[in-house]
Design goal:
Keywords: Hydrolase, Protease, Serine protease
Organism: Pseudomonas monteilii
Number of strands: 10
Order of helices and strands: EHEEHEHEHEEEEHHE
Family: Belongs to the peptidase S8 family.
GO molecular function, one term: serine-type endopeptidase activity
CATH architecture: 3-Layer(aba) Sandwich
Largest sheet: 10 strands, mixed
CATH superfamily: Peptidase S8/S53 domain
Strand content: 15-25%
Helix content: 25-40%
Protein name: Peptidase S8 and S53 subtilisin kexin sedolisin
Structural class: alpha/beta
CATH class: Alpha Beta
Shape: globular
């Protein structure tokens, strides 16, 4: 049954050791303003490696596809992310984790997300706990995930805020808290789909809400005990 679930990750790649266990991988980059694609390179940022480890820890045995859109710097383009997403959809991804957020709404990314959702792919994207909207998390139909320091491994919170739907375990996430929380929850969703196939986005959303360890955002301030 595990082979029925294919998880796509759009990030900075992964370590050579992690790459050995992947179902597939592809790199997407811009060269002279043109989109290129080819063989994935080793992760230079370490971000994708951490995201993959977090996701696999929660997911257990599922097939993973990695699309690399970051290289030596934590910056990418909507065109790269859109191309990566469409490749994952064509490769049969059941769920795609996007532990990234672009500040600008771009039609090419919006369209790619719409096509993925129409194909029945679940999209999980990170959103910061505070600040303005980011994309693709702010697109309709995307499950918005962030980090929540209250959560232990295997736990998550139902936030239901303007920023995010759910928060996940971050560990020693530091500045990558939203990214790792997103990855952990994507992994938990992948495990759910492996064990109980056929759930759609709304059913997944309802299951996460019903089984959340915390309800509402974390309260911080003088009165926080």
């Amino acid at each position: 049954m595990g082979t029925d679930v294919r998880v796509g990750i759009i990030d900075s790649g992964c370590s050579p050791a992690q790459a050995n266990g992947l179902l597939g991988a592809r790199r997407f980059w811009l060269e002279d303003g043109q989109l290129r694609e080819g063989e994935m390179l080793p992760d230079q940022l370490g971000h994708g490696s951490a995201v993959l480890a977090s996701l696999q820890h929660e997911a257990g045995p599922v097939s993973v596809l990695v699309a690399q859109v970051f290289s030596a710097q934590a910056s990418t383009s909507a065109l790269q992310v859109a191309a990566a997403l469409l490749w994952l959809v064509e490769s049969g991804a059941t769920l795609v984790n996007l532990s990234l957020g672009l500040q600008q709404d771009r039609p090419v990314l919006h369209q790619a997300c719409a096509e993925a959702l129409a194909a029945g792919v679940l999209l999980c994207a990170s959103s910061p706990a505070q600040g303005g909207p980011v994309y693709p998390a702010s697109y309709p139909g995307v499950i918005r995930l962030t980090g929540d320091a209250r959560c232990a491994p295997g736990q998550w919170s139902w936030l239901g805020t303007r920023q995010a739907d759910f928060g996940g375990y971050v560990g020693a996430g530091g500045r990558a808290g939203a990214s790792l929380g997103c990855a952990a929850l994507s992994g938990r969703i992948a495990a759910l789909l492996r064990d109980e196939p056929g759930r759609d986005r709304q059913q997944v959303h309802d299951w996460l809400r019903d089984h959340a360890a915390f309800i509402g955002p974390e309260r911080r301030g003088p009165s926080h005990g």
